[in-house]
Specification:
Number of helices: 12
Helix content: 40-55%
Shape: globular
Bound molecules: nicotinamide-adenine-dinucleotide, thymidine-5'-diphosphate
CATH topology of the domain at 2-188 and 222-251 and 288-312: Rossmann fold
CATH superfamily of the domain at 2-188 and 222-251 and 288-312: NAD(P)-binding Rossmann-like Domain
Largest sheet: 7 strands, parallel
Distance between the termini: 53 Å
Strand order of the largest sheet: 3-2-1-4-5-6-10
Oligomer: single chain
Radius of gyration: 20 Å
């Protein structure tokens, strides 16, 4: 019997990690700690919420006393840390929330693990989930490897870089058994419609403008979220202490080309004439400090631990579009309330 703490489990990637671990490891007890910010949604977990090996705890990783007491009470064997503020545009508007949750929150978790595990680290593991954005931006050539120097440009990526450095420092200084992964852009069910793919699917459906930043020439490397969760499982169980693994699908898309794929699939599924929704494309003011290109070399993970993506992008997009079209209640729950205000503030002036 193992007791695991997953932070941020009500969010997009965290909910897929919780589902995988709760179903695959009935002899683990999985505690999901989440503050339920705008991005956290318990509707993401209705299929596992009554499982005997799952418990939800509402709480804030920024509250150091609360975190310390939680670790003392439950004596976790492992931590998979996903809780974060995760959207670049929000980080540009409000960097402090990113410093608090992503940096201070991570250090609170490290301190609690160190205090409760003392120096007996046998069988313990602190897994920190990070992003490829810490490496900065690529030109037209090359890939991020685990050796690429950190060069973050947005407050989001700077805060994630800061948290990665603290995690490594706790390994190097105190011997804490940590492991880190840096993943490329995820897509799939349950992603909050502030990120490109779910935002644009929602807008296409509602015949709303599609706000393309700059010329739409930025490149992202897209991975299906379930493949990210599977990579986290493999790394958590098989990766050696102190290591870093890059996760990515070798699946680069220029934004404007990706948007045309979304339009084609949506027009087909909505019974519209092919290309009808292209008229919704609206070029708007570019994001400040917009990274040109991200692309991951995941050969270390593939060669050492045997992980590889399970599906091709076309299949992943079909599944994703079907999920959003079939889950209107979920979309309504995320786009009511503060969402309209967010949308006006983010896009009203572009
Ligand atoms: P998300 O924004 O969908 O979810 C974040 C979750 O963390 C939410 O449930 C939120 O309620 C919770 N949370 C936020 N602040 C908290 C706090 N102070 N205390 C407790 N819980 C808090 O994010 P996501 O896209 O699922 O990303 C999860 C992790 O994966 C993040 O660490 C992110 O940096 C990393 N990541 C994301 C991507 C991506 O493409 N989305 C890619 C690589 C890495
Ligand atoms: P996003 O989903 O925010 O992920 P990230 O910035 O972390 O990579 O954005 C993906 C790409 O899409 C990025 O190049 C910015 C661009 N983008 C738009 O053009 N319009 C939008 O409304 C959004 C949210 C993103």
């Amino acid at each position: 019997m193992k007791t695991l703490l997953v932070t941020g489990g009500a969010g997009f990637i965290g909910s897929h990690v919780i589902r995988l671990f709760v179903n695959k490891y009935p002899d683990y007890h999985i505690f999901n700690l989440d503050k339920l910010t705008y991005a956290g949604n318990l509707l993401n977990l209705t299929d596992v919420e009554n499982k005997p090996n799952y418990s939800f705890i509402k709480g804030d990783i920024v509250d150091g006393d609360f975190i310390m007491n939680l670790f003392k009470e439950h004596q976790f064997d492992g931590v998979i840390h996903l809780a974060a503020e995760s959207h670049v545009d929000r980080s540009i508007e409000n960097p402090m929330e990113f410093v608090m949750t992503n940096v201070i929150g991570t250090v609170n978790l490290l301190n609690a693990a160190k205090a409760v595990w003392k120096d007996n680290f046998e069988g313990k593991r602190f897994y920190h989930v990070s992003t490829d954005e810490v490496y900065g931006a690529l030109g037209n050539e090359g890939f991020f490897t685990e050796e690429t120097a950190y060069d973050p440009h947005s407050p989001y990526s700077a805060s994630k870089a800061g948290s990665d450095h603290f995690v490594r420092a706790y390994h190097d200084t105190y011997g804490l058994p940590v492991i880190i992964s840096n993943c490329s852009n995820n897509y799939g069910p349950n992603q909050f419609p502030e990120k490109l793919i779910p935002l644009f699917l929602n807008n296409i459906r509602n015949n709303q403008p599609l706000p393309v930043y700059g010329k739409g020439e930025n490149v992202r490397d897209w991975l299906y979220v379930i493949d990210h969760a599977a990579a986290i499982d493999v790394i958590f169980h098989k990766g050696p202490d102190g290591e870093t693994y890059n996760i990515g699908g070798h699946n680069e898309w220029k934004n404007i080309d990706l948007i045309k794929v979304l339009i084609n699939v949506m027009d087909r599924k909505l019974g519209r004439e092919p290309g009808t929704s292209e008229k919704l494309i609206t070029y708007v003011t570019d994001r400040a400090g917009h990274d040109l290109r991200y692309a991951i070399d995941s050969s270390k993970l593939q060669n050492e631990l045997g992980w590889k993506p399970s599906l091709q992008f076309e299949e992943g997009i079909e599944k994703t579009v079907d999920w959003y079209l079939n889950n209107q209640e979920w979309l309504d729950s995320t786009t009511s309330g503060d969402y309209q205000k967010y949308y006006e503030e983010m896009y009203g002036h572009r």
